[in-house]
Structure formats: C-alpha cells, structure tokens
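Design review, sub-item: ligand-bound model
Attendees: FS, YL, KQ
YL presented the inputs for the S-adenosylmethionine complex:
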Amino acid sequence: MPNIDLLAMHKLFLQNHIKPGGTVADFTMGNGHDTAWLADAVGEGGHVYAFDIQTQALEHTRARLTEAGLIDRCTLICDSHANAANYIKEPICAGVFNLGYLPGGDRTKTTLCASTKIAVETAISLCAKDGIILIAVYPGHEEGTREGEMLDSMLAALDHRSFSVSRLRIINSPTSPFFFAVERHDVERHDVERH
Ligand SMILES: C[S@@+](CC[C@H](N)C(=O)[O-])C[C@H]1O[C@@H](n2cnc3c(N)ncnc32)[C@H](O)[C@@H]1O
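KQ shared the predicted structure:
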C-alpha cells in the first residue's frame, strides 16, 4: 500500500488558497465529506456550491451539513457539474473534483470524460486569482483512465504565466488515485530569459 495520504495532501493544497468568507465549489458532492470540510473552511461568511447528479447524494449531504450546523452556507444542486456556469456567478477561491463513482454506490453513475472536461474548463474559468482547482482521478477503472489522460493533456496546455499545474502521482502504482492541482497566480507572471 502506498504511504501517501491523498486526502491529507489535498487539504494542504486547499488550505493555502481558501479564504474565510470566500466562495468555493464541490463539483462532485457524493456523501458530502468534502462539502462539509469546505463549508467549515470558508467560515460563516463563506459559501459552498455543491453538485451531484444523484438525489441520494443531496439527501446524504444535506443530513451531514444540517447535523454539523453548516447547511446555511451551502447551495446543493442536483445537476451535472458540466452546467456549473448556470449556477455560479462569482469567482471561486477553490473548486474540488473527486471523480469516479461513490464507493459502495451505483457504478454506472460515474463521472464521464466529456462532461468532466466541460466542468473542469468551467471551474478554471471561474477560478479567482490565487485560487485553486483540485481534481482527484481514479485510474483503477476504464473511464477513470480516460479522464486522467484527457486532463493530463488539457492541463499541460494551460498558460504557465497564469497557472501552475501540479500532478501528484505514485509512479510505481499506476492504478492508485492521483490528483492535479491547478493554482492560479495572484499576478500574471512574465517569461524570464533563461541562461
Ligand atoms: C467519488 S464520488 C464523490 C465523493 C465525495 N467527494 C464525498 O465526499 O463523498 C463521485 C460523485 O460524482 C457524482 N457525479 C457523477 N457524474 C457527475 C456529474 N456529471 N456532475 C456532478 N456529479 C457527478 C457521482 O454521483 C458521485 O456521487
């Protein structure tokens, strides 16, 4: 088993960008673990938009957030993340994708390459200066492998003067989950001549 705790690494990245009072998005709500974490991180004045295509996900997440006293700062949306631009009209300081299907849930309700591409493009276009988009990929199944390859080429083409894109991957365990962190610079960088 690999030693890297993906979730702990996620949070390290996110913590550097989330501002109290900020707006963030959970693009794959599931059972709401990330939604709740994000809602706590933005504090009372912040807001979380969360998306899922399964009503069951909204029910579980609503219960979790209500129990934790966080529901008032969240908008739960039963729609594809590919339609996020219809709902979010302000810059986000963080956006989280946890691709794939719910562990123990319906495997046919997995994220799909085509809609993931649109959703990640939308998330990047909504990303505030100094914001972050974090995408966890699960290459242990076919669609996850395709999503990883698609994101690899799409994100490698992002303008380096505006974004830094990192990929954290265990290279000797190819089916282990990995993630991309897309960090937007607070000021656009200019090319420097290298000698
Ligand atoms: C790996 S789970 C997310 C787990 C979640 N982060 C949690 O804390 O429980 C992936 C979720 O993405 C959802 N999903 C699949 N396609 C989607 C789409 N087009 N838009 C939004 N959510 C989608 C699935 O229904 C599933 O709940």
